Amino acid sequence: MQKHRRSFVKAAAASGLLAGLSPRAFAQGAPMFDTINMFVPAAAGGGWDGTARAIEAAAKGAGLVGTFQFENVGGAGGMVGLPRFVNQRKGQGNALMVGGSVMVGAAITNKSPVTMRDVTPIARLTEEAGVIVVPTSGKVQSWQDLAAAIKSNPKAVSVAGGSAGGTDHQLLGLIIKALGGNPKDAAYVAFAGGGPANAAIIGGQVVAGISGYSEFQEQITAGRMKALAVSGTKRIPGVNVPTLLELGVNVTAANWRGVFAAPGVNADQRAKLEALVTRMHASAGWKDALQKRKWTDVFLAGEGFAKEIAKSIAETEAVLKDLGLA
I need a surface site. Which of 14, 36, 57, 298 has the fewest CB within 10 A? Predict the structure, then answer.
């Protein structure tokens, strides 16, 4: 039997039947999915889009998926795109959406009738500490400068970040509160994507910026932004920037991201998508993405992920009440 199989492979190769297939692809066999429809409820260039593209690279590199079809619909921290995904992808077993903690806050802030409760949790993937940056050309050049300005008049310290009510906004509120101010006085400037926020910070249109480290990494490395502090419980590996805790500010926060299936998928469809993401997570390509992007691996699939979402919603509601947004 093995001899016949080798003969078939040789004959097929000679006749061109295997043309276009790499040896690795043939060894891996057929992919789990011919196509994954990846929905990103945000503009290109931000954290969710970066996560989706990293998933694509890792899954295709491991031979798990043939092709990815992308759709980006930005606005309101995912609340513009989320209803579209819920209504148009219902019951589709090859559709995935990237989302995260920003979406939790945005749903509460916008009083959205469609929330994360309306999609099917597949897996939490990453957690990323926030970083507080300033433009290198700005007047503020140290954490001490920024903290003094916030203590003096938080309304005069404009800070760029993601959507209103999202993780970046919440972090600013927590910082103001820890420094003795009122979170409702936050001068937060919300942007729908990472590109516009970067431009505003570099151009000096705002005093400072807050986002996940990977979104500002290129600008920090290039010297156009200066990182003053990170919001994790410990420093980001390989990044010489102190935590807020080290600076005497009792605040920690992180932005988690994960993937979701559409509502109405059956148990078999959900299990297959969980298996896909689990195998993608174990791939060399994904491990490489975690290291390059300074993401923390917090993989959690299935019901455990669903329970963490419920916990995140409760905690976010408390912070947003302090900000006057819930």
Answer: 14
For the record, the structure tokens of 49 come out as: 């889009």
Give the tens place of pLDDT for each residue, 245-262: 999 999 999 889 999 999
Close Cβ partners of 29 (under 8 Å, ≥ 6 residues apart) = 63
Q: Residue 219: CB partners within 8 Å, gap ≥ 6? A: 133, 198, 201, 202, 225
Give the bridge partners for 58, in sequence order.
none
132-144 residue pLDDT tens = 999 999 999 999 9
Locate 100 and state its tokens.
Answer: 């995260």
CA 198 to chain centre: 16
How far is the C-alpha of 94 from the C-alpha of 292, rounded, in Å?
28
List of residues 6+ apart from 195 with CB closer than 8 A? 43, 44, 45, 46
Q: C-alpha distances in angstroms, 44 versus 58, 74, 157, 256?
A: 19, 8, 27, 18
What domains does the chain contain, in order, with CATH numbers?
Answer: 34-127+256-323 (3.40.190.150), 128-254 (3.40.190.10)
- What is the DSSP code (8-state) at residue 185? G
pTM for this one? 0.79
Contact between 48 and 54 under an 8 Å Cβ cutoff? The reply is: no
- In tens, the pLDDT along 209-238 reads 999 998 899 999 999 999 999 999 999 988
What is the rounded radius of gyration, in angstroms, for the C-alpha atoms of the chain? 22
Separation CA 209–CA 134 (nearest Å): 6
> What confidence score (pLDDT) does residue 194 get?
76
Q: Which helix (H) or strand (E) holds 44?
A: none
Task: For 106-156, give the DSSP string.
Answer: HHHHTT-SS-GGGSEEEEEEEEEEEEEEEETTSS--SHHHHHHHHHH-GGG
Q: Is the dihedral of CA 208, 214, 215, 217 positive or negative?
A: positive
